[in-house]
Structures are given as structure tokens and as C-alpha cells.
tRNA (guanine-N(1)-)-methyltransferase
Amino acid sequence: MAQQRLDVVTIFPEYLAPLDLSLIGKARRDGLLDLHVHDLRDFTHDRHRTVDDSPYGGGAGMVMKPGPWAEALEHVVAQGSAGEAGGAATTGAGEPARVPTLIIPGPGGERFTQQVARELADEPWLAFACGRYEGIDERVYEWAGERMPVRVLSLGDYVLNGGEVAVLAMVEAVARLLPGVIGNAESLVEESHEDGLLEYPVYTKPAEWGGRHVPDVLLGGNHRAIAEWRHEQRVQRTAERRPDLLPPAAASTALVDLEERVATPADAPDLQVLTRACWAPEFARYGMFGAGEEDLETVRAGIQEWDTRVWRRDGQLLASFRVRPHPTQEATWQIGRLMVAPYLQGRGLGRELLAYAESLAPEDVGTFWLNTGAKSTENLRMYKKAGYRVRPGEGEFPGTVDLTKRRSPA
Ligand code: 6GU
């Protein structure tokens, strides 16, 4: 079974002691989790083991110095290639992971959600950098970003004193998704946030307690009625406590309610922005550094070479794709740049766009072809669900895979 390696760098190693307890502790003892905690002060060289200093430009508090961080992270990265007994993390394919994905917890980060937890559970190796004080010198983020994928993640809109408590939360959320950590896979599926609704209320014996009764429906054996009641409770509870999780009633997100146009060169600037917005998180996450920066000239050329479609609402570009006959492959329809504005993702729009892109193919087309990041798990999930199969080997671009699907006979 694959093992996930975790490295945590902190000035309070004892803060991570709870990771020896309960299910997470058991996962470690079972060898599913390989956790290493490092003391940042071990990477200082002065008598006082100094990790912070006053901020340039003035202001409150102290800032963590870059030097110890770089040394600590270099030490962590070196563990990957060191081949120390059982030390090196391996990918799903069994190759050693060369660098970890670095997580820097902080209130200024991208929101840590169940979706992010799933993405992190897919990674063979995670490193966590726990900041304290007013934060870490900005150059550490740049330095690390040139060496490994970096994600700055926040638990929510409030401020903690440091990243340690956040790391406890994130490690618990991620580790319980690893195969083998929780015995019953179903208990993972039937959960708050797994499908966008909060959990239903639960009861156990006695059926009457202090004059309070367990709802009748749960005492009968009508499983269908129970399932319906529970679903109703979930919707009601979500509406009361987390209305933000329910699909917005007013703003429709169906494709048919948006204005479709064939793109012209005038759409290039907006398309460039949408492409960056869609790709930047992937690049950061999966470490395709520096790739994917297209200048306006290239975007304009793409509009000429493909049939590019754009969808706008109130002038704002919300979605796009481009299609054309494959330049070299016979009877093949190329679908590219299927993009949905980040805030509209996860609602099935991409799926709708894909079906529409396929419907534009001329009659003689027998195969649909597209290309995506080899590690873009959400894209791959959607394409596979739509009937696409990953072609063996590397895709058209480094770090990508090609996918194809036979057109079903009309
Ligand atoms: Cl991840 N870190 C800190 N220091 N404060 C936070 C947070 C993280 N998430 C919310 N507040």
C-alpha cells in the first residue's frame, strides 16, 4: 500500500505531539503515514538560535528570517533523494517523489476545503512550513516556488498565532482519506462536505430520553422513507447554517442562459486572463513551473487557428473552448482550452461545454481528442466520466496526457 510522507517544520515540535494519538497515530504505526517533525531552530547558526527579526519598512511584530527556512527546506528535500532506509516517499507509480508539495498555512491563503484535502491525499509527499509572528520573509515563498509546488492554505477567515494548529487540522483531514486509514470507505462518502450538503442529525438508544423522542421515521424499517427524511434534513440544515453551500437560486449557471459567441481577436485579452486563472492553480499544484504563460499575440493566433467559442454574462467572460479538425490525425476532432471561470467550477458546466464541443464535429469525425495535465485529477475525473480514455505515454505537451473517445454512432 502506498505510504504518504509528511514533513513539518516548526519552532514548536511538541505542538505536533497529538499526531501520535487516535486514528492518525495508528496510521503512523501501521506504516501508512511517515511523519517527520523538524525544529526550525536546528537550522540557525547563532548562539540564540534566532529565527526572526524586525520588519523592513517598520510595522508591528517580527518577521521570520529567510536563511533558516531555506536550510530547513533544503534538508527536507534532501530526504527525498537520500534513500535513507524507508525514508524516500514514492509516487503511486512507485517512483521516488523528487520534491514535496510545500504547504504554507496562513490566514492569507487559499481556502482549505474537503476538495483541497482530497488533492493533498493524492500526493506522495507533503511538507508543511509553520510560520509564526507576522509571517515569513516573502522571498522564502519565491525561493521555494522555484524548487517545489507551493500552496498557501488558510483554514478560514480568522487569525491563529501560527501554522501549527492549522497543520494538525490539515493532516487529520488528509490522512483520514488515505487508503486503509479508515476501515469503512462508506463512512467517508456519507459525510458533510463530500457532496456539498451538511450531515443529517443522528440518534442512538434510548428511543426516549428526558422526554425527548427519536423521530418516528427512524424507528420503522422503511429504508426509503428514512433516506428521504435524512436528505430533507440535510437540505434544511444546510439552508439554515450554510446557505452559501446551496446553489444560488437567482444567478443561473446553465449554459443556455449565457450568451455564446464565436471569439474574435478582440476576445484575446479576456481569454488570456481566463486561461491564467484556470491554469495557475494547476501549475502551482502540480509543479509545471513557468509553463503556460502565453502572450497576447499567441492567444490571438489561437483564435485564428481554431473555432473558439466564448460565453459571457454581463460582459464578463465566464467560459470558453476551442475546436478544430485534428491537424495530423484523420477523422479526429480536437477539443482544447475547455475553461470555466474558477468561481463557477464544480457545477457541471464543463461537462455541458464538452458535450456541446463534441456536437460541433462534422459528420465524418469518428474520434474526439483532448489533452490535459497528467496530474489534473479533477479534469481527468470529468473526462473519464464523459467516456474518454487516457492514451498511453506522454501527451502532446510535457507533463500532459492525451485522451480520446470514439464517437458513438448516431
Ligand atoms: Cl492556516 N494559519 C494561521 N496562522 N491563521 C489562520 C489559518 C492558518 N487559517 C485561519 N487562520
User: Anything to note?
Assistant: Residues 105-107, 153-156, 158-160, 162-163, 166 surround 6-chloroguanine (CB under 6 Å). The chain is about 30% helix and 20% strand. The two ends are 44 Å apart (CA to CA).
